[in-house]
Amino acid sequence: MSHRTWFAGLCIALLLGLAGPPDARAQTGRVEGRVVEAETGNPLRSVNVGLRGTSIGTAVQADGSFVLDDVPVGTYTVEASLVGYETAEREIEVRTSETTTLTIRLSQKSVELSGITVTDRRGGYVAEEVASGNKIGAPLAETPQSVSVITRDQLAAKGVDRLSEALRYTPGVQGETFGFEPRTTFLRFRGFDATTGGLYRNGVQLRNPSFNEGYNPEPYGAERIEVPRGPSSVLYGAGSPGGLVNVVSKRPTQEPFNEVVFEPGSNNRLQGKVDLSGPIDDDGTFSYRLTGLVREADTQVDRVPNDRYFVAPAFSWRPSDATTLTLLGRYQEDDTRASQRLPVSGTLESNPNGELPVDRFLGEPEADRFDREQWSIGYLFTQKVGNAWTIEQKLRYYSIDVDDVSVFGTGLQDDMRTLGRSLFESFAELDGIALDNQAQVNFATGQARHTFLLGVGVQSIDVGSEQNFGSAPPIDVFAPTFGKEIPDPPPFQDTDIDQRQIGVYAQDHVDLYNKWTLSLNGRVDWARTETDRALAETQTEQNDTEFSGRVGLVYESDFGLAPYASYSESFLPSLGTDPDGEAFEPERGEQWEVGARYQPPGSNSYLTVALFDLTRENFLQTDSETFQQIQTGEANSQGIEVEGVASFDFGLDVTASYTRQDVEITESVNEAVEGDRPTQVREQMGTGWADYTLQDSPLAGLGLGGGVRYLGPSFGDTPNTLKAPGVTLFDAAVHYDWEGIRIQMNVDNVFDNEHVASTFVNGPQDFATFGAERTVTASIRYRW
């Protein structure tokens, strides 16, 4: 679509509804106010506010405020409703050209169960809003895109230890692409890899160009995890066409909250957690939060540790209801080693010498290491200006150092037991600063209510990477011995990447007649990348300017069904030059998506069905004849995603998902692979999880949970001959709550199903990686 088309669309949206007769509009007034929780006075979000007997209504903003413009004069009953709260009613009189202001207080709902009063549960597995799909905190029902939200309750119930585990029950996502992996989260959305650009924290990207660094965020520091699928460059700039993961940090609370957790488990695991929060002064102007974790643990692979130190302090200043400044700090230190790749012969295929066990380590204990130290500091600032404007700014400075040394196998010798090995060293440092400024204004044009967003995003990173590559002595894979001398490897690469990006974006989120929601987005990005290759003594500069757009439409019916349709685009700079010395064009993505979301009125649940057609263009491939990178790749992904989430008042929480994705290489430098499925892509995935807690019995507080995960087969090559088989895995949990104490046990892969998670080719040798084995984790938590 052209720039003119997008501009015309924005203009049309602004003019919608202006044709009403002037004399009718003159006899109107305005209703505005806030919705707060009666018990705490804190603002409530995702509340539906409407005038009884009319079609006039809206959902409140993130700060609890709402505005009803152009209300005909008269007397009305205002109704405010939210799942888990008693519906509130207020009588008002609207006068000509006047503003009626009110505050509505909602009290949590209680129900009687055999003489015991139980407060109705709110939230649970169902998110009240999603920020990453539109940056304005709109409800899921108004989002023309497939989005999953993994709430804090879900993370706790499943005993999540890594981000990859948190994504196990989410449709359209592969977070454990290579199975067990303690170092980095390898992400894949709708069949397309997003490891280097698909990870975000608080709506700001954690960039990783050329895979020089790796991230593995601590999930205990997350309040929730949002997973929008499809291109999102219209809001975030350069990124994967398949989607992203946005980790939303825990922030200070206005109510005191404290917990300590002790977690022993499999593989000599000992872990302690602490989460403390609350106001500092009596009126809550200042508040704090301190989240921390210490872990010492082995893993399912011999000689591979999984140790971590994590601390995240936060401080908020709220001088008024209109102003909030939150400072966020973060420090994380990891000590682990590479997950092991083993020959296919002895894992998937038979070997005359026997079978290789899951715990087999084939590196060198004195050489192998993966040490990562990262820290960040930043702030989130929000300022309301009057009743219509909101100004927000996000700033983060972050740094990460990785010391990665790995001895790995290259190929079996003729005796089928002696494995040739190589040594790879990678030492990388990244320093980055990210800034996102946005201004939001609410206004009405006739029957159209607009939330207009204008923003400027800036990213600046500097990455230094030194890599060495050499030979290592062979090893007997069936009777390994260690300690042989390894010669110093020669330099392989010494690169410095300096990358700058600035983007300007606009979004108009239009509520039409309380039934239709139209979203129009446009963004222009300017990206510059300077690459200094010291060994080759070359310096290159690459400049890219790209426009991305999105349009979406949602219809919200009275009975909770909200069908939608959308078109969206993405771009990602491709570093390097072609054989003629010309800079590569940015990779492009475009997607059509149609679907429907069903949220029964008054229920704490939703069901989403999405059909998508996603094309990835201009991605890089290696020419098998010249071994140079060229830009001819194109792939297409078509499929369906289904997700259901519910939290019921009687103690049952459930999630279910299904994914079917037909991913195909449509253009390639190697024509023989056109029509094949890309590597590591599972065609089908399905999950289900249920957790039930007794509410009314002598055993009230006792709960049981269980889940099933089906992972379809994938290929490790592209003539699609090397296959990792599909697998079905079961998880379970049991927990008991009493007087602020929670005792919990989680078992992942209950039946210890030993399975190969991925396969791939390295030179003449086929390799395989194992998935996570059975792990048992106990937890004792005290909350006050």
What does this structure look like?
By secondary structure, this protein is mostly beta strands. It folds into three domains: 3-108, Carboxypeptidase-like, regulatory domain (Immunoglobulin-like), CATH 2.60.40.1120; 140-245, Ferric Hydroxamate Uptake Protein, Chain A, domain 1 (Beta Complex), CATH 2.170.130.10; 246-783, Beta Barrel (Maltoporin, Chain A), CATH 2.40.170.20. The chain has five helices and 44 strands. It has a 22-stranded antiparallel beta barrel. A five-stranded mixed beta sheet has the order 10-16-17-14-15. The longest helix is centred in the N-terminal third of the chain and has 13 residues, at 3-15. The chain is globular, with a radius of gyration of 27 Å. The chain starts with a helix and ends with a strand.
| Poorly predicted segments | 1-8, 10-26, 110-122
Q: What would the CATH topology of the largest domain be?
A: Maltoporin, Chain A
Helix segment tally? 5
CATH hierarchy, class of the largest domain: Mainly Beta
Main β sheet profile: 22 strands, antiparallel, barrel
Q: What's the CATH architecture name of the largest domain?
A: Beta Barrel
Estimated helix fraction: under 10%
Arithmetic mean pLDDT: 88
Q: Any idea what the radius of gyration is? A: 27 Å
Q: What is the count of distinct domains?
A: 3
Which overall shape is indicated by the principal axes computed on the Cα atoms?
A: globular
Separation, N- and C-terminal Cα atoms: 55 Å
The count of β-strands is 44
Q: Provide the structure class.
A: mainly beta
CATH homologous superfamily placement of the largest domain: TonB-dependent receptor, beta-barrel domain
Strand content: over 45%
